[in-house]
Every structure is written in structure tokens, then in C-alpha cells.
């Protein structure tokens, strides 16, 4: 019961926090039998929640035992189908026995249920797929062996890719790969547990890499990320949604990997040109994709009039939304900043706080307003429904104000420094050519 209620609330939180959640190949989750879902782990608790919301049936999670460090947390997390396991590199938690945990996992799988494991262990927001621990492979092989190789267990890879996972209204791609069976490794497992588990873990790595955009190292990741930010553009339709953004990133990654092997001198040229372009873009305080805009005098006048009209008409609604939502918004931000937590926990903590603070805020507003205005029950319901909608409107209006500021700054730069803007356009075009033309 608690699992289903929280799943519903978390789904709402995720849909509000992220502007787009794209699930690719969802049909691959369908399987008449037990499943182990393996996934990369870039965004801490959010990863588990996300997989839970896209899965139709209840799922069970292997979770590090340090989250279960008191009785209340133990009860709460166990109610969410989370199974604690002590890690070798962390303090052991009283009441958590790894042998009991493994037995519970075998039981769950033998009953045809779904287990989620993040074989990287730790969570870091990066493209790099870290070393996988062999525990998942051991669980899969042991469960299958205990059932005589007839369990029909499938291991399904999921690639979780966030455009900016910690940022409000960023996007997510959930890429689900084809599942594999583990029976081919059973014979070797009977004679040598360790070797079979290592070979299966390597297979896990291969199927995870197929559903992810991975890099070889941190340096390559920094270059790929920076190039993607520099070259994506809504005006070229390569940044219209999360799918197009990640497709561009994959193309850039593939090119960088190719040049790293065949033309390493070209990598240096790309790095130098990118650094020069980014320095000038930052100095002029414009956005990269504005360089793809065409500026005509009639268009500029029309946009100026429409923008001013939108600002005048929209500002009162913006103020109403701001007044109704500013307290929980600022309070959530302050708590996250003051706690100095790593960015991998931002989104999950923000959603948890929002599920508490925003309803309390709206209830308090209704209580105060009721003293001055007589409201029916359905009037109060409508008011409560409108408050978060107005809050989202205010957020987008504030972004629109920033966009207008950038746009007019760019327009005046084009008018006063046309030669400099044209030079930047040439550099950006050259960057495209260096990357994608042999």
C-alpha cells in the first residue's frame, strides 16, 4: 500500500521536476518471468525512483545499508521494497546481514519478481561507465542454478541519461536494451563461481554500453560535453528534445573516439578552436545557438513589439504565481545549498522536500485567504490546482525574461559589431567541419 502511494507521488514529482522523460524500447521490459534490471547510476535515489515509475509491476531494489541506519528508516525503506546490503568499503549497519539479503534476493527471483541492481555501486553524474561489481552476476547465476536452470531469468539493461540531472526542468532519456539469459554460464559456474561471475559481469558491461553514451575517460567526457553544448541549437533542430540532444552527443562522441585513434592531431585543433569560441561567447554574453539566428529589421521590430506585449500581459500572472510559490521554492533551494550535498542528490531531495513544503504552503494560503474571502469546497480545490500551475508559469516567464535579455543583447551586437559576430559564425562553422567532415 505504502509502495503504491509513494510511487504515485514520486511519479508526479518526477513529471514536474523534469520537462521530458523519454522512454525508448519500453517493450523490452515485458517478460513472463523473473527479471534483474541493471542500470548505470548517475543520479542517486532518482535512478531507482525513475525505474520504479516506468515498471508496471512492483520492483525490489538492492540499496546500500548506510541508508538504513535507524529503525524508522529501516521500516520506511523496507516498505518501499528496498533491500539493504553492506558494502565492503563502508561501515556495517547493525541488523543488516548480507547472507540474509542474498537469500531474500533468490526468493524474490524464484517467485518471478523483479530486482533492480546498480552494479557500479556508487553514484556519480558522469558519462563514464565505472567498473561493475560482480555481485549481480553471482545473484543471477545462483538463482538460476537453485532452480535447475529453468527459472527463465532475464537480465535487462537500462541506460539512464540526463541532460543536466540536477537541474529543474531538464530532461531524461531512459533507453531499455534487450534482455539476456544467463544459462550459458551455468556449467562454468558449477565448477568455478568466480570465473563465471567475471565473464557474465563483462557481458553486463557490453549490454550496458549499448544503451548508453559512454566515454573512455574524464578528459574525453569533458570534451564531448563541451562540444555538445557549443554545437546544439534549437534553430538547427538538434536540441528540440532530449532525443535529438543525445543523438548529437553520440555523433560527437563517435567522432572524437575515431580521431583519438586515427587523427590525434585533429583533436588538438578541435580543442583549441572550441576554447577560443567559448571564450568569445562568454565575453560577449550571448548563447551559442543565437549564432544560427538570422536578424532582419522587420523581424526585429515585430519581435520587439510581441515581446513587450507578452511581458506587459504576462507580468501580473507572473507576480501571482511568484507570490504563491516563492516561499517553498526558496526554502527548498536554501536547504539544498546549506546541506552542501553532492549534485547527485539534488533532484531527489528537491522532490522529497517539494512533496512536503508545497502542499503545506498551499494549505496555509487557503487557510489565510478563507479568513477574507468565503470559498466553497470546489472553489478551494480549484484554487489549490491553480497554484502549482501558476508556479510553473512564473518559472517559464522568468526564463523568458532572461531569453529576451539575451536576444536583444545579441541583436544590438549584430547591429554594432557585425564583423565580430560573423567571425564567430565562421569559427562555429569551422568547428562543425572539423568534427564531421573528413
What does this molecule look like?
- With 438 residues, this protein is α/β, with parallel strands linked by helices.
- The chain has three domains: 2-210, Glycerol-3-phosphate (1)-acyltransferase (3-Layer(aba) Sandwich); 223-290, no CATH class; 297-426, no CATH class.
- It has 14 helices and seven strands.
- The chain has helices at 2-17, 45-54, 71-79, 98-110, 135-146, 186-191, 193-210, 218-231, 242-262, 264-284, 297-339, 346-372, 377-416, 418-436; strands at residues 20-24, 35-39, 59-64, 82-85, 114-117, 154-162, 171-176.
- The chain has a seven-stranded mixed β-sheet with strand order 1-7-6-2-5-3-4, with helices on both faces.
- Helix 3 (71-79) links the parallel strand 3 (59-64) and strand 4 (82-85).
- Helix 8 (218-231) crosses helix 10 and helix 10 (264-284) runs antiparallel to helix 14.
- The longest helix is centred in the last third of the chain and has 43 residues, at 297-339.
- The radius of gyration is 26 Å and the shape is flat.
- The termini are far apart.
- The relative contact order is 0.10.
- The mean pLDDT is 92.
Amino acid at each position: 500500500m505504502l509502495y503504491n502511494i509513494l510511487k504515485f507521488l514520486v511519479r508526479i514529482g518526477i513529471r514536474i521536476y523534469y520537462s521530458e522523460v523519454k522512454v525508448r524500447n519500453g517493450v523490452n521490459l515485458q517478460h513472463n518471468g523473473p527479471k534483474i534490471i541493471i542500470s548505470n547510476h548517475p543520479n542517486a535515489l532518482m535512478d531507482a525512483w525513475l525505474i520504479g515509475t516506468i515498471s508496471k509491476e512492483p520492483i525490489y531494489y538492492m540499496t546500500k545499508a548506510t541508508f538504513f541506519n535507524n529503525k524508522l528508516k529501516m521500516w520506511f525503506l523496507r516498505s518501499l521494497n528496498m533491500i539493504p546490503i553492506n558494502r565492503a568499503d563502508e561501515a556495517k549497519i547493525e541488523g543488516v546481514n548480507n547472507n540474509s539479503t542474498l537469500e531474500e534476493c533468490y526468493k524474490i527471483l524464484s517467485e518471478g519478481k523483479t530486482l533492480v541492481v546498480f552494479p557500479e555501486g556508487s553514484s556519480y553524474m558522469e558519462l563514464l561507465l565505472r567498473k561493475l561489481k560482480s555481485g549481480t552476476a553471482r545473484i543471477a547465476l545462483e538463482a538460476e542454478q537453485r532452480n535447475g536452470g529453468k527459472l527463465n531469468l532475464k537480465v535487462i539493461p537500462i541506460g539512464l541519461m540526463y541532460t543536466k540531472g540536477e537541474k529543474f526542468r531538464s530532461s531524461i532519456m531512459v533507453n531499455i536494451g534487450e534482455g539476456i539469459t544467463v544459462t550459458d554460464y551455468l556449467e562454468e559456474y558449477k565448477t568455478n563461481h568466480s570465473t563465471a561471475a567475471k565473464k557474465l559481469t563483462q557481458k553486463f558491461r557490453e549490454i550496458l554500453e549499448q544503451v548508453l553514451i559512454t566515454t573512455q575517460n574524464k578528459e574525453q567526457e569533458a570534451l564531448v560535453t563541451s562540444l555538445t553544448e557549443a554545437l546544439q541549437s534549437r534553430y538547427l533542430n538538434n536540441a528540440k528534445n532530449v532525443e535529438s540532444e543525445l543523438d548529437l552527443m553520440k555523433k560527437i562522441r563517435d567522432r572524437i573516439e575515431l580521431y583519438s585513434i586515427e587523427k590525434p592531431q585533429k583533436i588538438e585543433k578541435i580543442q583549441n578552436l572550441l576554447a577560443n569560441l567559448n571564450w568569445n561567447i562568454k565575453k560577449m554574453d550571448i548563447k551559442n545557438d543565437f549564432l544560427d539566428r538570422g536578424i532582419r529589421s522587420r523581424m526585429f521590430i515585430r519581435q520587439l513589439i510581441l515581446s513587450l506585449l507578452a511581458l506587459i500581459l504576462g507580468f501580473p500572472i507572473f507576480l501571482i504565481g511568484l507570490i504563491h510559490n516563492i516561499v517553498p521554492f526558496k526554502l527548498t533551494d536554501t536547504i539544498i545549498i546549506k546541506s552542501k550535498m553532492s549534485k547527485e542528490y539534488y533532484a531527489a531531495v528537491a522532490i522529497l522536500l517539494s512533496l512536503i513544503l508545497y502542499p503545506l504552503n498551499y494549505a496555509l494560503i487557503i487557510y489565510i485567504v478563507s479568513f477574507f474571502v468565503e470559498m466553497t469546497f470546489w472553489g478551494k480545490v480549484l484554487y489549490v490546482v491553480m497554484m502549482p500551475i501558476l508556479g510553473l508559469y512564473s518559472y517559464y516567464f522568468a526564463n523568458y525574461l532572461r531569453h529576451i535579455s539575451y536576444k536583444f543583447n545579441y541583436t544590438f551586437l549584430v547591429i554594432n559589431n557585425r564583423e565580430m559576430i560573423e567571425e564567430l559564425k565562421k569559427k562555429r562553422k569551422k568547428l562543425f567541419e572539423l568534427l564531421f567532415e573528413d
